[in-house]
Design brief:
60s Ribosomal Protein L30, Chain: A, binds magnesium ion, 5-stranded mixed sheet, 6 helices, single chain, two-stranded antiparallel sheet, alpha+beta, globular
């Protein structure tokens, strides 16, 4: 019979999957930062932080995998110290929390959902940056972008969504 007590958990393989989702609304007079890269566009993403929707989804995937709640709990959006902050800081802090428990990233796969701007010219730069931030070889990082076929808030160009799946090991 299975139970969730610590004793049983100790006998299990230290390999976990995490999933993350995030979305932000487009707004004028904001930078568009995706995966830590500044993307030239006439709109940016509205948020308390820099609005990096991709990094936020990745943060939640890592926290989910490690059983450490979520980004909103760790970095509340009513806390002044996180105002307009570079979301790479969130990611590095979270990676440190995982490293403290001997977790390392095995691979990451993520998808951006947006109509515009076209992300193709920036994907390699984003992968390289995420690989550096996550201390993981870039061939274990995958970033894809697709449209939502003009349906819903992403399809209507109202904002950007991102999903991320990560595996961590120790
Ligand atoms: Mg967010």
């Amino acid at each position: 019979m299975r139970s969730n007590n610590k004793e049983d958990s100790d006998n299990m393989t230290d390999f976990r999957i995490g999933f993350g989702y995030d979305s932000h609304k487009f707004a004028p007079d904001r930078p568009l930062i995706i995966g830590g890269i500044a993307i030239p566009f006439h709109l940016g993403l509205l948020a308390h932080s820099d609005g990096d929707v991709l990094i936020h989804a990745i943060c939640d995937s890592l926290l989910g995998a490690a059983g450490m709640k979520d980004i909103g709990t760790l970095f509340p959006d009513n806390d002044k110290q996180w105002e307009n902050i570079d979301s790479s800081v969130f990611l590095s802090n979270i990676l440190q929390l995982l490293e403290n428990e001997n977790w390392k990233v095995n691979n990451l796969d993520c998808t951006l959902i947006l109509e515009l701007p076209k992300m193709k010219p920036y994907i390699d730069m984003i992968v390289k940056n995420l690989a550096k931030l996550l201390k993981t070889p870039s061939d274990r990082i995958s970033v894809k972008a697709k449209t939502n076929e003009k349906m819903g808030f992403t399809g209507h160009g109202e904002g950007v969504a991102a999903v991320a799946a990560v595996t961590i090991v120790k």
